């Protein structure tokens, strides 16, 4: 697959238009966010942690070359790029942690990402987890993003659940990664994938969408209309 995904193309993995990707076997990248009743994570931290988890999975040695997850990663990226976020707590989380995957931690959030699975072939300990109801809040004001940090800008006109927004932030991070030159990729990787997720100001959003940066247009499987632009990925090296 081409790494140049900075402009929409007819057969983009994130667009609803039918194409060759729809004819390929469909896979999904599972992410599980830990939400304990007594100590749920902050929403923005959960979104940022999910986005970093996607980048960590893309670059893990098991995901590339002859790694044990590489075939699944290739099959997933040859079809629609689907991500599904489920929630777990207590024993559910411990069972999820026992499955092959990677746990990424933020300030308050823990997200475990797993190698892609067939759309109808989820491991039972993940399949039983809930998708709906992943609603989180930010207990404290979220500071402005550092201009030097990559920012995943969310559409201010779309009301998305935390789980949906986590998946969309992951899409944005993936498009940014694909669009970067090798030197910028290496630097971002070495720094541990610093990034911010913020909701764009209504007045700023049209300019972001028209600015030539990587944009996610959702396929419309859940919550929002097909073709909706959900995220613009603003990495300094892509400006």
Description:
It comes from Streptomyces calvus. There is one protein chain. The protein has helices at 20-23, 43-59, 70-78, 90-97, 124-127, 162-179, 182-190, 205-209, and strands at residues 27-34, 82-88, 102-105, 110-113, 117-118, 151-154, 196-199, 215-217, 229-234. By secondary structure, the chain is α+β, with helices and mostly antiparallel strands. The protein has one domain: Bit1. β3 and β4 form a beta hairpin. α2 packs across α6 (162-179). The chain is globular, with a radius of gyration of 17 Å. Residues 1-11 have low confidence and may be disordered.
What does this entry show, briefly?
This protein is of the alpha+beta class.
Descriptive keywords:
9 strands, single chain, alpha+beta, Bit1, 239 residues, disordered N terminus, five-stranded mixed beta sheet
What is the secondary structure topology, with strand pairs?
Elements lengths: L19 H4 L3 E8 L8 H17 L10 H9 L3 E7 L1 H8 L4 E4 L4 E4 L3 E2 L5 H4 L23 E4 L7 H18 L2 H9 L5 E4 L5 H5 L5 E3 L11 E6 L5
Parallel strand pairs: 1-2, 6-7
Antiparallel strand pairs: 1-4, 1-5, 3-4, 6-9, 8-9
Helix pairs in contact: 2-6
């Amino acid at each position: 697959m081409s790494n140049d995904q900075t402009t929409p193309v007819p057969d983009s993995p994130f667009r609803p238009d039918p194409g060759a990707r729809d004819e390929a076997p469909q896979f999904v990248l599972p992410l599980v966010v830990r939400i304990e009743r007594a100590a749920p994570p902050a929403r923005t931290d959960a979104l940022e942690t999910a986005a970093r988890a996607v980048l960590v999975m893309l670059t893990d040695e098991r995901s590339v070359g002859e790694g044990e997850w590489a075939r699944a990663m290739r099959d997933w990226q040859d079809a629609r790029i689907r991500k599904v976020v489920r929630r777990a707590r207590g024993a559910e989380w411990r069972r999820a942690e026992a499955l092959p995957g990677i746990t990424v931690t933020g300030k308050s959030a823990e997200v475990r990402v797993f190698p892609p699975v067939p759309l109808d072939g989820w491991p039972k300990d993940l399949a039983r987890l809930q998708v709906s109801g992943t609603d989180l809040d930010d207990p404290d004001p979220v500071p402005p993003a550092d201009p030097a940090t990559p920012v995943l800008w969310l559409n201010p006109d779309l009301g998305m659940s935390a789980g949906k927004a986590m998946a969309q932030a992951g899409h944005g991070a993936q498009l940014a990664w694909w669009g970067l030159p090798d030197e910028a990729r290496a630097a971002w990787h070495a720094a541990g994938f610093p990034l911010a997720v913020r909701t764009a100001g209504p007045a700023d959003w049209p300019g972001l969408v028209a600015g030539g940066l990587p944009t996610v247009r959702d396929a419309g499987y859940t919550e929002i209309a097909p073709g909706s632009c959900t995220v613009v990925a603003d990495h300094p090296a892509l400006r």
